[in-house]
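can u do me a favor
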């Protein structure tokens, strides 16, 4: 998550949470809640301020979050997704199936 990435970068730069908050001109309490994943959807303005102080691009912060877990996809999962795409299954249909499957699992419990 983005909070974990911010915390890691902050610690690598040997900065306290107070120091980062002050330099980025953001509330320490909000930064803390982001780092602890209590808040998980910070504004782009917040991300821009934090990335500037940490010396990384906005993309590095955001894409680290987006790419998390992709390395866990094995060849079989990739093949299943490829077959679904080739057979004409749309993203919307796949999302509907996932929602149905979640609902079905909840009904069983």
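np, heres the sequence
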């Amino acid at each position: 998550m983005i909070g974990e990435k911010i915390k890691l970068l902050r610690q690598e730069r040997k900065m306290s949470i107070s120091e980062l908050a002050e330099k980025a001109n953001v509330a320490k309490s909000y930064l803390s809640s982001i780092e602890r994943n209590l808040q998980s959807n910070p504004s782009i303005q917040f991300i821009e301020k934090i990335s500037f102080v940490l010396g990384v691009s906005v993309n590095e912060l955001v894409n680290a979050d987006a790419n998390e877990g992709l390395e866990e996809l094995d060849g079989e999962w990739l093949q299943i997704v490829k077959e679904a795409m080739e057979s004409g299954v749309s993203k919307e249909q796949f999302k509907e199936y996932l929602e149905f499957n979640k609902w079905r699992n909840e009904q069983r419990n």
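The chain has two domains: 2-70, 73-108. hope that helps!!
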